[in-house]
Amino acid sequence: MPKVGSTSDGHLTETTGTEDEHALTKNILLKYARHAEKASLFNHASMAHNNHLFFSTLSPTPPEPSSALLTQINTSFSSMSSLRATFVATANAMFGPGFVWLVRKNNVAAMSNAPSLAILTTYLAGSPYPGAHYRQQPVDMATQTTNITGSMSPQVYASSPIAHNYGFGNMFAGKFGPASGPDKTGPGGQDLDVLLGVNTWEHVWLRDWGVGGKKGFLDAWWERIDWGVVEGNMGSIDHQRPGGRKTFGNYR
User: pLDDT tens-digit profile of 35-54?
Assistant: First the structure.
């Protein structure tokens, strides 16, 4: 049985000897997010990827955020202190294990002076990337009709031209339909960059901070955020950190 785990460069040992042996964890989680029989592989890939981001944005001597990054933070959250209060409160309120993310919505970022940063939460090994969540709906049911009447039975509908054109229930969901294809952004999805994340699983903080110590852990974590890496994840810094330390973008 292949070993389960990940290497320092973001590759999974669980994929040893498979076609995914040299694939990055992000590519693996996007590839198998819709495959129920690959749930274990998705979970390990997603957790490895999430934790790479969590650890890569920490520093014992973190730099201050740049003026350009502060401008975006102020536009989206009014101030750095407001972002901190909202982010820490959101993470502290997480009922169960997961991650809290700072993301940039790229379709909004293209518009000048528009708030483009947002806080996003995921539970367990959930991924913040919209490509891991895509579910195809062939028509917008709010604006179109399939001419289905309440008296039409599922059997009649399944054999009708309507079903052929529009699908039937979850027929197009999961690995069996078009939604199982390559990385996509679904209806209503956001094209986003993941800039920063904190792990709220109890094993991350409980041993050191004790029961009731989650808020203390989050406050201490905030003081160690490497804002240079955060900005690098936004794409404004495309080089490696001094001393060979990499931004999270190198793990993608």
Answer: 888 888 999 999 999 999 99
**DSSP run (H or E) holding 136:** none
How many CB atoms lie under 10 A from the CB of residue 3?
9
Do the beta carbons of residue 222 and residue 84 sit within 8 Å?
Answer: yes
Closest residue by Cα to residue 146 from 177, 169, 172: 169
DSSP assigned state of 199 = E
**Residue from 228, 229, 227, 226 nearest 249 by CA:** 229
Distance from C-alpha of 157 to C-alpha of 152, rounded to nearest angstrom: 6
Angle, to 10 degrees, between the axis of helix 214-222 and the axis of helix 80-93?
A: 150
Of 209, 216, 229, give the one whose Cα is nearest residue 88: 216
| 181: Cβ contacts below 8 Å, ≥ 6 apart | none
What is the pTM (predicted TM-score) of this model? 0.70
**Which ranges of 80-187 would DSSP assign to H, the alpha helix?**
80-93, 106-109, 154-158, 161-166
- Asked if residue 237 has pLDDT above 50, the reply is no
